[in-house]
Design brief:
The protein is α+β, with helices and mostly antiparallel strands. The chain contains eight helices and eleven strands. It has a four-stranded mixed β-sheet, with helices on both faces. The chain has a three-stranded antiparallel β-sheet with strand order 9-11-10, with no helix packed on it. A two-stranded antiparallel sheet has the order 1-2. Helix 7 packs across helix 8.
Length: 209
């Protein structure tokens, strides 16, 4: 009698059939996995912040260099800056494009996505008042079309937004107290970014609120 279990030599294997020390291991399908973020975050106290950069796709670019982010980091107190272990300039994934994600924090690493070379942000539906207020601090060039709304940036505006808002927002997440609620975490990071943008004279005090 045919025994299909004995004939299938792939049973018990992981993706790619990787086995180490007699134990199965899953294949890492991304260059940057959680293991990498954890390893970077465990760098010794006082070690220099690492900068990693991916090559953006043809229609995207990194508005700022790693050295420019490091220069902003040096303007912060050491008790805040020393917790940032790596700055990663990433190639924007299709998922992040669809979700509108501009930056992320992974453990003690700040991840900044590339920006469209068109220097435009687009919305299929009219942005809410809070979204408009968020961007109006840095750029208020809104263009309303028949099927979408665009925000048109200059190179200098997007550089300032990345350096003194996106980057500082994620630094705020790294330094925040533990909050269970997502809204409180986002509120702390947003206030952190706005407060330091004012202290670094990149926004007038009236823009803090």
């Amino acid at each position: 009698m045919r025994n299909p279990i004995r004939r299938n030599r792939k049973i018990g294997k992981t993706q790619g059939g990787r086995v180490k020390d007699g134990r199965a291991q899953e294949k890492l399908n991304r260059v940057f996995s959680d293991n990498i973020w954890q390893a970077l975050s465990r760098l010794p106290e006082g070690s220099k912040c690492r900068v990693l950069a991916e090559n953006p796709s043809r229609n995207y670019y990194h508005p700022c260099t790693g050295d420019e982010y490091l220069a902003v980091l040096k303007q912060l107190p050491a008790c805040l800056a020393n917790h940032v272990k790596a700055i990663v300039l990433r190639r924007t994934s299709k998922l992040d494009v669809r979700l509108g994600v501009e930056a992320r924090r992974r453990f003690s690493c700040v991840i900044l996505n590339a920006f469209p070379t068109s220097n435009e942000m687009t919305w299929d539906q009219p942005p809410t008042a809070s979204v408009r207020r968020h961007y109006d601090r840095w750029c208020s060039r809104w263009v309303t079309g028949p099927s979408m709304v665009k925000l048109q940036w200059t190179r200098d505006e997007i550089r300032s937004y990345y350096l003194y808002h996106l980057f500082l927002h994620e630094v705020g997440h790294i330094n925040q107290p533990w909050f269970h609620h997502l809204r409180r975490r986002e509120g702390f990071a947003e206030n952190f970014a706005l407060e330091w943008a004012v202290k670094l004279q990149q926004l007038p005090p009236s823009q803090k609120t």
